[in-house]
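Just scan this pair:

***
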Amino acid sequence: MIMNWDYIAGFTDGEGSIGFVRGGRDGMYTPPRVTWGQKDRATLEAIKEFLVDHGFHPHFYYVPPNAAKRRPNGIYMMNLQRRDEIQRFCEEIQPRVLLKALPCEKVLQWLKDHPRRYHTAELERALIAEYVEEGYTQAYIALLLGCSDQKIRRVGNKLGIVFPKGGGKIEDGKHIAAMTKAEYLRHRREKEKNLQCVDCGKFIYKGSVRCHSCAMKLRHQTQPESFKGCNIKSVLAVISPSVAQENL
């Protein structure tokens, strides 16, 4: 077997999949991926070796038999999930394929329309570090770069950027003054669980009336229509059989 891009393109045209996969609790489509499935392990291992030699990072795994899913025999699977590798792979095989030419075009267009929202390049690292040195808060940096502050925190930890502690006086997204000791103690007191839930007696934070469990139970009993994605009658039957009878 002579392994080259022409062979991989033909194999992908017949045995592969390029596109989006529906998954997750909300049923949304995941980012694009390239997937192959084959009962013959040797073929996929040869393709994997070729891709690794060309700088790719394919994920190779075995799916065991499952009678419930009408899969009497096991199958070997391999996929590419890194967006830069998917882009390079599609650009490489697009001129060589027939059936997968349109999926390649759709994936490349999606990658173009949905650029990375977090920043790891050296230039971006320098930009984040510059914002931190100027005193901008983590949330304001995220606003400037168009992503969530959690991603900015993760990228900063990965690149060794130390963000200033929160609190204190903030103007125009910048830390003007650090939090004083009195402010810190007041903040800690406000965060203490000094109150009790009116239903179960569990300690809760200031400004609350019920704990999360009791609040959800009350919502089920008084506003069952707000839970659009569940079986309201079943929920009511578990919480209060009498309320369930009233809603039948």
Notes: Residues 195-246 form one domain.
